[in-house]
Fold each of these.
Amino acid sequence: MHRFANPNRFLRLSAAVLPWTAGLSAALMVVGLYLALVGSPPDFRQSETVRIMYIHVPSAWLAMFGYASMAVASAVGFIWKHPLADLTCKAIAPIGAAFTALCLATGSIWGEPTWGTWWVWDARLTSVLILLFLYIGYLALVSAFDDPARGLKAGAILTMVGAVNLPVIKFSVDWWNTLHQPASVSRIGVPAVDPSMLWPLLVMTGAFWAFFIALVLLNTRAEILERKIQVLRAAQAYGASA
Amino acid sequence: MEKLQEFVSMGGYGAYIWGAYGLCAIVMILLVFTTVRRLRANERTLATLKDLRRGGGGEAERGGQPAEGQKDAP
């Protein structure tokens, strides 16, 4: 049962951490929503539509962070064959995909009043759309095999190869002439965002991150249990036929 | 009251802003709902399977001794 030692420790640890991350997320969400919708000023050029930033940017960061953590988990699973790594990778995928879709949708809703268009095929938007397809492709690939272990392995390879898209997304606004604006928070030096807008953005980002972590913990628990169910079912089938 | 109307209209961009926030809320709530439901379902299935293995139904007895390594997965 050595194989299960770490997943079991994870089950215990995650049960202890979960209420804290969920509570933190809820608390930050309340404060963040107040700051984003009431406490922060309208932009002098975009007026009120700037408030979409407070959900669009955290979603975008989570979309990329989610994929990056999947790539790391895949590499760990691939090199050290750690069973928990592959399961974590699979647990992150649907959540990361949801935030990528949210990033695209909120960006589109923000683009209409500010750019005058819902969508353009500029490098930033296109590379994020590719990220969404990578997530969906991973989910499809993992479930396409009869043997779950083979599906996870194929998914891990796809994830690692697809990781080249991450720097493309990050630097797309510098490499190409995009309609999307360049980075204004995560850049060298002082963020080019006024504190009155930076604070709600940071609080909302914290709320989104805590939400993401809580959900990944929950979903990883579900994956571990599913794995145990598979093992038990296989043992049962073996026992019945023997 | 006027204040509230002003807040809801968001300078004429209410549809965009509330649309974006509403969509975000729906997706996040759905994520929590589906994940928790999946976890609960797996917990139930696992409990049932373990009960069966313990020989509650008699059916599991037939298998004789299970493979040594898989006897307990606490």
Note: Residues 58-184+192-232 of chain A form one domain.
Amino acid sequence: MNLELFIPEMSLAAFAIAVILLDFFVQRKGVLAVISLLGLVVSAGFTIAMWGGSPQAIFNDMLAVDSFALFFKLLFLGIAALVILASVDYAHKLAHFQGEYYALVLLSTLGMMLMAATTELISIYVALELTSISLYVLVGFLKDPKSTEASLKYLLLGAIASAVLLYGMALVFGFSGKTQLGQIHGAIAATSSTDIMANPGLILGIVLLIAGFGFKVAAVPFHMWVPDVYEGAPTPITAYLSVGSKAAGFAIILRVFSSAFGLPEWLSLNWGLIFAVLAAIGMTVGNVAALPQTNIKRMLGYSSIAQAGYLMVGLATVGIAPAAAVLGRSGVLFFLAGYAVANLGAFIAIIAISNKLDSDLIQDFSGMIKRAPVLALALSLSLISLIGMPPAAGFMAKFYIFSGAVQYGLLWLVIIAVLNSVISAYYYLRVVKVMWFGEPASETKVPSSGALRLALFLACLAVLLLGIIPGYIMNLAEAAARMFIF
Amino acid sequence: MFNYLSTIVFLPVVGAIIIALFSGGRPRLTKYLAAIFTFLPLLAAIGVFYRFDRAAGGFQFQEKIPWIAPLNAFYHLGVDGLSLPLVLLTAFLGFMVVLISWKIDLRVREYFAWLLLLETSILGVFASLDLLLFFVFWEIEIIPMYFLISVWGSGRKEYSAIKYVVYTLSGSALMLAGILSLYFTTEPHSLSMVDIAQQGLVPLVTVIPQAAIFFLLLAGFAVKLPVVPLHTWLPDAHTDAPTAGSVMLAGALIKMGGYGMIRIVVSIFPQVARDYAPLLVTLAVISVLYGAAITLRQTDLKRLIAYSSVSHMGFVLLGIFALGQVSLTGAALQMVSHGLITGLLFAMAGLVIHNVGERDLNKLGGLARQIPIIAVVFSVAGLGGLGLPTTSGFAAEFLVFVGSFSSTIVSGIQVYTILTVLGVVVAAGYILWMLQRVFYGPVLEQYHAVKDADVLERVYMFAFVALIMLVGIYPAIVTDIIKLGISPIISFLGG
């Protein structure tokens, strides 16, 4: 038993429990944030120490410790750290249960880390539920009507999605008799194509898996929950949902589909095509629906649906061109990193601004460049990155993910995607326009805490670094996309 | 080895950062900083122009370091005979617009920061030899222009700004798809414009038909140049932009379209360019004549000059797709010349509008008496615009016409050429009529106290006029260099 390979997860779990226990004794709740951060840093340290080692499987091949998992673990830890830094300012809205808040963030991070590593259907389900249940609670944390409604909606729809997912898993298990991804792959390879076709259980199972995972990554047509939940949830949690849970969903999709259903080729071609169509519909629906939004959190909700569409271009590449699977996967990985920092940057700036204004309406951001120049500039940079314009991360991310698609005959999809970027420019720039050209409603400055400014600085720095010198992270993503057991 | 090109390209943005960080609340300091950080690149550009080895030709002052290894992208700068005059033009205009903007008093710090960022992006476009780097600079330019138009513009400024963004982004989105297709067409995958053009695409199996990549790339450049019917952003953006924005737009920015067509589209797809030249030359004729006709109908001073740009850029399109040595040289010279002349026209129009406070041609009149200096310089620029000998406009248009007429590649080019020459006749009409409506006729009472140009304004007027005359009288100073850049392209064309 290689328990040392499980240390990042165990240490994070220990810190989460420690935060809950310390909550009884500590009066200044800021300390809990510091301890949570410490937990993330320690876990990240263990994870980095494992980078470069040979890939291994632990717990009877239920968990993989490969570069792919490590890349995602670091991504989740980084995201969680920024979310916690940004939450410090928000904490005054949470009269009670601050300890639980931080602990739940850590626990959902733990779930995401497990999602990136699991290679077996049942543990996938457990990891997914650990993430989701923590998030259901976090969404309802404000305890006002909107937040409660969001939480309930998320819970009910999430439960249905989980049920669909379980049903899909059951069908796949029924067909192959295995739950381990590598063994499922073996079972499929041992069956002739005609047998697979004659028995629609597997195909139906795959479709149901796409639906279940599609809900988690907020892909059209499983996106209905997004705007309401994003609007109602505490803003740091909205940020967390929009990047963390989405990235975890893509991690699990990549692993399941590449490992279990990567071959035979006609099968991967089919699910690749499903993802291509979902991508085209997703980005168009997301972008068009974002156009008339007046609440910035709802707008970013729809924008995240569109971004899931761009990401699915990478999934489609993986499916349609198995020869380009590495390029397709690394495109998704790099895009997730770029999207995460840009979206977090945007949300962190919004947290600070809405805290002062007590409003999420775009029109209330008017003249923000005069009241909070740093926040407005950072928000503008993040939005420009989300459009996909240089010199920000979003541009390189799009260039990279689309380059794989173009190489393998998905030019039609890429053209739809780039034209979608133009549509998206319209609503992202509307926010920029209001902030820079509008008249400020009052002269009072918008304050922000040191922790929040640090988080914002880190996010913006990452946006620029990934946009100007992306080579290093691209190499990491490529290494991660290559080293992939099962 | 001193990195001239990086210095030229990045000094303005360094200036922009310094201004953004340190010059809060001190508008005079801001303006001096902006002047310094645009004057130094101009000096360096003059140095490059002077030291450019005319005997050797080819790409010089190259800088090449790996940039993004997984994509095989390089930070690769270099100038040849084609790009050097445009780099010099942009550096010149970059300094001039700072002088032109000296009287700005609204949000001075932001204004100059955006202006300098804009200059860096345009210089970067002309200096990059890597397609990804080129595209990055191409896209960066959109944001500063958006801000310049929507904050410091006039009229329907926010509408014009977003229209500009949507048009440019649509074009460049297709261009991005084209660049990606091109990237995977080459073997080994390369983003270097020079290598791709030299190795040629003929023996390779392309992802999609070459013509499709050609038109994807062309879409981006055609929006920028602009080519009718993709031109409708231009009158709005030019009219509503602040004076410096109009000068940069008309002077340097739309040249990016023509430059891209020559450097990328024609150089990399010579055969496709030959196949589709008749179509593009037809569009050139339409741009020239439609642009000229609609210019005649304008009553707004700036809008009139904006539409005349559509017509004048039609000459560039004609020269490029006549695909002859002389016609391409003429097209490149026309870009430089138009940059100077229209730059000056917009500067003068801005001055008239600022000093007089009126932009409607029907309400202006008789100003030659009150503002004689502006009147004279405006007239010189106007005469350049209609192609009077001794101005650069004449040399450029003459070369375009002679070159196109004698081109052997496109059949029936003579007819197209003669049709576009009609554009010059109409140009004489609209420019003289405009000058007449602004400066001549009865002296109007309400403009009694209008002030003429001050010392600073006379300085930049002089610089513009001197250059227009210099190129007009001795065009070889530019064409000798341009020829060095054009001749390799002619060898790709096999003509």
Note: Strands of chain A lie at 56-58, 63-65.
